[in-house]
Amino acid sequence: MRIAVCGGPYGNPYALRSFVDDARARGAERLFCLGDLGGFGADVDALWPILTDNGIECVAGNYDVAIARGDADCGCGYRDPKDNEYAQIVYDHTLAATGRDFAAWMGRLPTEHRETIAGVDVHMVHGSTLALNDFWWESLPEEEHRLRAEASGADVVLCTHSGLPWQRRIGDTLAVNVGVIGKPANDGRQEVRYAVLDLIDGHAAAELVPLAYDWQAQARSMRAAGLPDVFVETIETGWWTTCLEVLPPRERSRGRYHLYRSTLPSGFRPADDDGWGDATPRAVQDDRQVVPPAVEDDRPVVPLFGSPYFPSRLWIYTNFHCNLACDYCAVASSPGAAARSLSVGAFRALVDEAVTAGFSELYLTGGEPFLHPDIVRLLDHASARLPTVVMTNAMLLRGRRAAGLAELVGLAGLAGRRLTVQTSLDGATAATHDRHRGTGSWKRAVDGIGHLIDLGLPPRVALTETPENTHDIPAVAALLAELGLPAGHFAVRPLLRRGFSATGVEIGEDSTIPELTVTADGLHWHPAGADRATSPDMHLAPAGTPLVLGRQLVTERFFAARLTDGSLPRPVHCAM
Ligand code: SF4
């Protein structure tokens, strides 16, 4: 026996008609619907004749129960006020648009159906075996899946409600979330999904079937009914724009939108917050995303990537070895550190991938990038594609490297390359600076800063604040001004407890905003945690993982960390 089971028609008669045709064409002998007849589209009453004329066997969803009773809300089980606000808009429409006869019919539907079909014990529910409005997500922990399967004990349990299709074996039970046909599955496709099950001699197999239908007609009917564009967009694009907060981290990370705009920190301006203020070098300032693209339009939802919580800058470790061995180095670099250099080819491919993946800035760091034998070629390629900042201790800007950089600066003027150099100075005297960074390093760093100024590439200079140099900060600012560094190119950053540093500010996934970082070892949550040996907690994925997948992993981890205590990570500007 072949059966077809759909969930959530959501006032979408066009999808329901296609479900009937498609299921019949596939040889389904019985058709089932697991409830939520209204709830997104405009024309709920049009579903009734399709259901009855085609003998679709229905169980009631929470929506149907609420509409039948004339409740004040849908009872979908959202906890976030914004989710509830959108749900209420559609519920009010559905309640007003549903004829009372149809509503009374909904009220007579059972809330579950259990039947042995071809020797298979099949249990059909709306939310789960625990509750009518329970969200049975694929990403639930194993024990949660077992709890729901064992609450039934059937061979097959079928559900919908959460709206996202999946199937899995849980012990002896085949559990299938059949998805919904009222709106797409937040996957960028207009098709919706339903399930076809073959039940033969006590055995069951399920297939989740994509269903094409006249989504343009559905969109038109929603607009004609005055439903907000934010709902219509989901029908037209396949991406969810509402009900975001209910999505668990994994399911949420797979969608295009992740946050309601109203949850973004108001007035967040990365450029003002990073210590560089108005004097951010012109080349960078012009391209900084004071308002990231993700929040520029008027959509009520935004992607996490490109928002202040996940800046669209990509950090690349060109190499890990360094001519210095600072005792506070967050990535445990030194002359003896394994180089872990990126080849020119790998670097170029990465930069090109970053452009495609939507990154808007590159930060090249190490180790000491100017130890990379091809650093000038790397800077050439990077700065031609995206605004690029290179972090250096400025001590190696001599000979071949200095000449190459000078040539590049010439090119920058000619070809519009956007390159900024950033370096470090921890004291106004060698005594203070060299204490953590090594004998002789102050003099060469000061010489390097002077060289960059002469080159027409005045660097940003950051001071890593320690108990030993706090008092020296005004003197460092004065020294830099004396060297001719423009005002505002100097900033102070905190010492971080990472790598070689046993003291300083604690950072972790639950306490910093993510800044996707690439090294020869793969992808990392943040540049200060890019050394896999000393920061295994910040390693996201192995080398070769696409940046787009990295964005998704960051998004999932961001929401997992956020949901632990309900708060959002704070930005820690450790390297800018
Ligand atoms: S802090 Fe910078 S300059 Fe010092 S060892 Fe680490 S990478 Fe090298």
TrEMBL record:
CDD domains referenced in this protein's UniProt entry, alphabetically: Radical_SAM
Coiled coil regions in record: none
Signal peptide: none
A Pfam family per the record: Radical_SAM
Keywords: Iron, Iron-sulfur, Metal-binding, S-adenosyl-L-methionine
Domain spans labelled Radical SAM core: 307-537
InterPro entries on file: Aldolase_TIM, Calcineurin-like_PHP_lpxH, Metallo-depent_PP-like, Radical_SAM_PqqE_MftC-like, rSAM, rSAM_sf
Gene3D superfamilies: 3.60.21.10, Aldolase class I (3.20.20.70)
Origin: domain of life: Bacteria
Family the entry assigns: Belongs to the metallophosphoesterase superfamily. YfcE family.
Name of protein: Radical SAM protein
Organism from which the protein derives: Streptomyces peucetius
